[in-house]
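Lab channel / #folding
Pinned by the channel admin:
"Please post every new chain as: sequence first, then the structure tokens as a reply. Keep commentary short and put observations after the output so the thread stays searchable."

First post following the new format, from NK:
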Amino acid sequence: MVQHPPRLDVTFGALADGTRRSILERLGRGEASISDLAGAFAMTLTGMKKHVRVLEDAGLVTSEKIGRVRHCRLGPRRLEEETAWIAQYQAMLEARYDRLGAFLERIQATQDPPGDHP
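Reply from TO:
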């Protein structure tokens, strides 16, 4: 069985949720407080804190408490491992499609052309 870095599971798990992907897109435009994010997504503060925690655990978001307000921004991770895994998976799929295409061409070449049957 192929072993993958555990970080891949954490990152893909964080990115699997549409709300969390939207949070990342929002933070890509600039820092926001938990309250701002909760309001933008019509979510409770508790619910938003849970989403932010998952993103923090994956290294995709950082937060800092300033006074009574927790501010969030994009984290330091640049998804190099994830990008490499996706590229490797894509190359594997493309190789399989190439083999399938070659197989279909061989099969088609061995069949009689249409119209040659009596």
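NK: The radius of gyration is 24 Å.
TO: also worth noting, Strands lie at 32-33, 61-66, 69-74.
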